[in-house]
């Protein structure tokens, strides 16, 4: 049986904008109130997804969410027509309106945690949508995320969908951004690494002082229980609180793994040596390539600016690995020099491919934020909703759809425009037909 690691990229939604919503995420704060281009953002994402499909990887797309989120605005007491609600919210609670308009579901690394069937006791592939409780604008994602995941992975013989964890800070869960899986082959049982920022039930444990730790140990443990993982196939690692305070708001901003490679910054974790030894022991006989990037070569600030670690490390059909990096890495001299050296070091990583995803980067989302990894065997791939899988036809169709419905420019002031609701719903309604998703949105129910 053949095995693959598929990437499901988030299709950027029609309201992509810069609202400065993510305290602790340097790019989001620095670009607050900048003018965005939803059209360019969506096309940059589609280009990357198409390129990965052309490299021979299994590539899917996940639909964006309905924004502005009028249902949440109604839930918090705004009444009247859609236009009246937007008008009132813009005047009386502009920060809440901005939170209800973010296209943040595009970062599907935060959509869910996924455990492949090779790791789980019941032999099913498990999904738990992330509750994203640390940020208001993201906490309104998980229910629709669950609907979209179920419409995409819609065969209960293979896929098991859980409800998101309880919506409380003790269970702060940011999904796959704080989870990576090492394995010898995608279809063999692997070691799942859960990286958390703090322990909710132990106030004495280390935690960041300035910026929030979005993921708790308790959330990671709950997901591992739900997914029926073995203790021997699971490692919990605490992220270094000092780097969270320097803008590393998710572990995937400082570390990434693929098969037998863990690529990370020397300051990424606490108790690094002990944890690497545990990973190696649980991995088994063959060797894990621990590629540690020292501060002397790449400072934390350079890693945060360039997103060196928010790269996708992928295995090509040839068996060699490539790094999918944002063009921002080419523009940072220290990082570019490091990447040029990396491919000569004799590790499995042999090439670097650069993609312009600047529209997303300006909100703190690099190539790896834009994708949810799902390791699957060929029967599972066949059971996926085939209309979500990238190919020439879907690429052309989605580009046409973007051209038809998306604005070239969007400012925060435009978010109160009632026309944007109509445009967004018309676009998403058509998208659910293109991707054969059924009625996943509240406005369709
Ligand atoms: N690292 C991963 N996997 N994901 C990146 C998520 C970026 C996202 N940015 C935002 O939500 C910014 C929205 C704004 O400010 O308009 C966040 O902070 O949650």
List the helices and strands and how they pair.
Elements (H helix, E strand, L loop, with lengths): L2 E8 L15 H5 L7 H17 L4 E4 L7 H6 L6 H11 L1 H6 L12 E4 L9 E5 L6 H4 L2 H11 L6 E3 L17 E4 L8 E6 L20 H10 L7 E5 L2 H4 L10 E4 L2 E5 L6 H12 L5 E5 L6 H7 L5 E4 L5 E6 L1 H4 L1 H10 L6 E7 L2 H4 L9 E7 H6 L8 H14 L12 H17 L11
Parallel strand pairs: 1-2, 4-5, 7-8, 10-11, 13-14
Antiparallel strand pairs: 1-15, 3-4, 6-7, 9-10, 12-13
The structure holds N~2~-(3-carboxypropanoyl)-L-arginine (SUG).
N~2~-(3-carboxypropanoyl)-L-arginine (SUG) binds next to loops.
Catalytic activity: N(2)-succinyl-L-arginine + 2 H2O + 2 H(+) = N(2)-succinyl-L-ornithine + 2 NH4(+) + CO2
Function: Catalyzes the hydrolysis of N(2)-succinylarginine into N(2)-succinylornithine, ammonia and CO(2).
Family: Belongs to the succinylarginine dihydrolase family.
Q: Can you describe this structure in just a few lines?
A:
The protein has 445 residues and is an alpha/beta fold. Helix content is 33%, strand content 17%.
Model description:
The chain has 445 residues and is α/β, with parallel strands linked by helices. It has a domain at 1-107 and 370-445: 5-stranded Propeller (L-arginine/glycine Amidinotransferase, Chain A), CATH 3.75.10. The chain is built from 17 helices and 15 strands. A hairpin with an 8-residue loop joins strand 6 (179-182) and strand 7 (191-196). Helix 2 (38-54) runs antiparallel to helix 16 and helix 16 (392-405) runs antiparallel to helix 17. It is globular and about 65 Å long. The protein binds N~2~-(3-carboxypropanoyl)-L-arginine. Residues 18-22, 25, 28, 102, 104, 107, 109-110, 135, 138, 177, 250, 252-253, 363-365, 369 line the site of N~2~-(3-carboxypropanoyl)-L-arginine.
